[in-house]
Amino acid sequence: MKENTDNTITNNDGANEAALKSSASSGHIKNIARLLTVLIVFGVILVFLDRILLLKSKDGIEQMKAYYRQPEGTVDALFVGSSHIFCHVNTGLLWDEYGISGFDLAAAEQPFWNSYHYIVEGLKTQTPGVVVLDITTPGVRPTDYQPENWLITNTYGIRHNKNRIDAIKISALKDSFKRLLVPFNSMHARYAELSELDFADYDDTARFKGFDARETVVSFEMPDISGVTERGELTEKEITYLRKTIEYVQGKGIPLLLMSSPYVVTPEEQAKFNTIFDIADEYGVPYIDFNLLYDEMGLDFETDIAEILHLNRAGNEKFTRYFGQYLKDNYNLSDHRGDPKYSSWDEEALFQRQDTLSFNIRNAALEGANGKYLDLLNNSNLVIFCSVAPGFTGLSDPSLIQYLESLGLKEDMINDIGAFVLNSGKCIYESHSYDFRIGFEDGNRRLLFVRNTEEDGPMHTMVRTNGSIGYQEITDYENHEMSWDNGISFFVYDTVLDRTVGGYTIQ
Amino acid sequence: MSLISLDFFIFFLIVMIVYYLLPGRFQWVWLLIAGGVFYYLNATSLQTCVFLVFLTVNFIASLNITDGSKHPKAVFRTIIIFDAAMLMGLKYTGFFLDIFEWAAGLFNHEINYDLVARIMYIAEEICPPRISYFSLIVMGYITDVYWGRIELQRNAGKFALFSSYFPLMTSGPIVQYEQISSRLWDSKHDFSYDRFIGGLERVLWGMFKKLVISERLAVIVNEIYEYYELYPGFYIPFAAACFAFQLYTDFSGLMDIVLGFSQILGINLPENFNNPFYSVSLAEFWRRWHITLGEWLRSYVFYAVMQTEAFRKLRKFCKKKLGKGYEKKYNIPQFLALLISWFLIGLWHGGGFNYIFGVGVYMGIVIIISELCQPFFKWLIKTLHINTETFSYTLFMRVRTFLLFIFGLSFFRAETLRRGFTMWKTALSLFNPWIFFDRSLYNLGINEGEFHILMFSMLILLVVEILQHGEGGVGTEGDEYGCPQMNVVRAIITKQNFLFRLLLFAVLFVMVICWGYYGSGFDASDFIYGRF
Predict the structure, then answer these.
(1) Do residues B246 and B490 lie in contact, with contact meaning Cβ atoms separated by under 8 Å?
(2) Can you give the residue range of the structural domain that contains B246?
(3) Mutation choice for A interface testing from B7, B16, B17, B193 by most A CBs within 10 A
(4) Are A272 and A232 in contact (CB under 8 A)?
(5) pLDDT higher for A249 or B278?
(6) Could you tell me if the ipTM is greater than 0.90?
(7) Confidence band for A474, pLDDT divided at 50, 70 and 90
(8) Could you give the number of structural domains in chain B?
């Protein structure tokens, strides 16, 4: 009997011990699960912050980010180099005119070592028919180290991989390398300037192809460097990476083309380009010196230059037409127009057409060319907010009435305090009241067309828009107040560009 | 290698992983190796050699000061003089040379400036980093062994580990042998999830204090102290208050990081801060601020001085002249010993009269005066019928203590004693309370947005400090994860659901990453107390 009791006790002890062990083990598993959860949550936070805080710069970072979004094997012409690439090679026009699917994988002030790492990254997902390497920046400013802001735009777009580490390592001074490796060290202070762009990536489609035109117009005297035969000096590091790049692309069996961009070049700079062309000759790599081809391209230094280093929109169109024809004639580049896989190039071409249009509309407004301005507004992607001032008595120029009719505004509609919203040749809203509010919505953008009459006060007609307008603008609120002193005022919004084109009043 | 650097995080991760993979009996050896590597990475080869020589000499001396030794007293005196001379000679070379130069000037004696420069250069080259910390730790150990308070450590490795445990080789705390020796090598430390998470939380909290609060305050403080001529009137006390909070968040933040890392390794270090701004007197303040330095001086200087032959004679003399029970009214020997201790505290903070006065002698004098005035204060309270058991009275005492403290501390930040006084003269030159209303404070190097972040962060700090100061918050025993002072806050946090804790932790993490002053353009690795 006693023995039995002992056994019972022993058995109970065993059961308790087993229960304790099982509870300890379940506690252990619970802790491991919690630890993993903590690590995962912190990992996700880091990725999220890295994405949000990263500088949204079209000086190189956005180009690389957009490149990753291109469907594999679709980029036929890869353009690498400095701002001369993304300001000059109009990828929309290249598609419109030649059906070439090109991408400007470039960053401002790019030295050869960064071009090398951009090409390494670029060839991971695409096998282009030609790689074009711009040599302008290394020729203009040969150096061993770029200032940190350029280093960032040239490396931070690359995904977190070995190539990115290598790119930062070769670009950074020894003391700065580790600091620059952790992007938060440079980016975290951006919390104070975060905008809609940082959270909602407008270009999360594959539309953006890296091209970003300059819009200013500055006239220069056309340089002549045809007689420059001297050889200028480059840094050892630039030469090493130029050779490395040539060998890398040749090793991949992809045709490489070197080019110096057209700009207001000096003889000293040309001498450095000559040195680079000599190295190209050594490897049998073809090159084009666009500074010897101004006339062939039809460049006008009065109207086509944005500033001393870059062409403007008018200039890049002339350049791209010429260069596109050269590429079409010399490389095996298929015409992909109509292929649904390449639909993003259609979007890009449309975007660039609209951008050119907005450039022209703004210029017409600046010139005060009423007829030209109204003619340009005849575009189905534009929404036109139009307000007629009190006491308006009619237009004196009958040709303007024709333009207005083509926009959807009949002559009998235009009278005292009229307000209209026009799109695709139709009037989609009409009011002749002193007070009204009409909302217009297009994607994320909301526009409010309002007229308020204050008691014994002035009358305001305004179009307010929400959010950031346009790609790089960072204002979070735009308020365009129209002038209404005896005339018709226009305010134009482009649904493709997702931004306002500006206002204008015909007196 | 700063505690807030990628290098240190990688270093610590390696140390931690290997540490927990090793069997218990090898864990302390690994910590010793890690300590050696850490020290070497933060010093030159020459400085590391000096550090090793220092440890070797002290270890050998420690073997010869116990009861059975031949000349324990002589050896003890020699080694203490050696250690103190090394600290003074290497750390305060500039200060002593300045005094020498001044004295030579009095006697129209020509100074050989080449020689002075050479001495300064040599001292800087060989002075081992963190000498102000490890020399006190070792001197404390030697004294304890000599006094027979602790058992002699005969294992050179364990002695070296105690003297160079790497989290301490940043800015303390100035530990005493008894406080950590058993934790360092007596037991095996297994990885614990709670300890790991608790330690990380504390590290993050320390980084929040340092990078988000202290570095922002530093901008304001630097602007006013640098161009004090432009900032008369209320700017000066405002800067002094900002500096007090800057120093507090800097040093206590660093301590949170050190203690948090050490906690992850299962080694709980003594606290160095205990809500000092809640103190109702300056004496209490210093028992809550840089606690381990105060304890060290009390244990090894104050009591030692009081036991000397000279003080015994002084006590006898006072008794004869002032009568029996004089201690209750005018305890002159104690005041003198206090002044010596305070002088040393000031000197420890830096070789300069601004340190010796501001965080030394001034504090001592205020404490002595308040001791002497106790009967008067008691009479005043009684006569004016003041109820001292109220919140308002406690608040008054705290504000008074804070103001007395920041006045002295302002000299710490001023480069010289003269500049400190000039600044306070500037403070009295203009009555400009409008600076607190007309947005002037937004023009002190940080803009309005940054200023609001600072205020918001300090509000978070205040809430945590209030919670910490709650019942049971002061001096309660540490739980198995250590850190007594953090207990109240820790208890509140641990009671919450896992997801809520995670959320708190994540929000703090995001605040540190985004709002922290680090990286390009900032030098957050420079802790004020790391310079000693």
Answers:
(1) no
(2) 193-273+416-532
(3) B193
(4) yes
(5) A249
(6) no
(7) very low
(8) 3
Query: H-type helices in B131-209, by residue range?
Result: 131-146, 156-164, 168-171, 177-185, 193-207
Buried b (16+ CB within 10 A) or exposed e, B268-291: bbbbbbbbbbbbbbbbbbbbbbbb
Segments of chain B scoring below 70 in pLDDT? 326-327, 470-487, 521-532
Q: Do B519 and A192 touch (CB under 8 A)?
A: no
In a shared domain, residues A302 and A377:
no
pLDDT of residue B388: 87
| Mean pLDDT rounded to a whole number for chain A | 85
User: Residue A378 is part of which domain span?
Assistant: 368-506
What pLDDT is attached to residue B93?
A: 81
User: Is any Cβ of chain A less than 8 angstroms from the Cβ of B509?
Assistant: yes
Give SS3 for B225. Answer: helix
Task: Indicate whether A254 and A347 sit together in one domain.
Answer: yes
Q: What distances in angstroms separate CA B372 from CA B62, B144, B329, B375, one per listed residue?
A: 41, 33, 7, 7
- For chain A, the domain total comes to 2
Site from B10, B192, B200, B514 to mutate, A interface, most A CB atoms within 10 angstroms: B514
Q: How far apart are CA A290 and CA A134, in angstroms?
A: 11
pLDDT computed for residue B477 by the predictor: 42
Query: Nearest-CA distance from B518 to chain A in Å?
Result: 6
pLDDT tier for residue A438 given thresholds of 50, 70 and 90:
confident
CA distances to A51, A202, A397, A408, B518 from A47, in Å: 6, 19, 60, 50, 19
The phi and psi torsions of B215 (rounded to 5 degrees) equal -70, -30
Last residue of a domain, one of B165, B192, B219: B192
**Model confidence at A236, in pLDDT bands (50, 70, 90)?**
very high
The predicted structure's pLDDT at residue B478: 42
A270 close to A143: Cβ distance less than 8 angstroms: no
Question: Contacts of residue A198 in chain B, CB cutoff 8 Å?
Answer: none
Which stretches of B265-390 are DSSP H helices? 282-288, 291-297, 303-306, 309-322, 332-349, 353-356, 362-372, 374-383
Statement: residue A486 has pLDDT above 70: no
Look-up of token digits 């490897």: A283
Angstrom distance (rounded) from CA A66 to CA A203 = 7
CA dihedral (B308, B310, B311, B315) positive or negative: positive
| C-alpha to C-alpha distance for A175 and A177, rounded to whole angstroms | 6
Chain B residues with beta carbon closer than 8 angstroms to that of A35: 193, 196-197
Q: Are A153 and A55 in contact (CB under 8 A)?
A: yes
In this prediction, residue A120 has a pLDDT band, given cuts at 50, 70 and 90, of very high
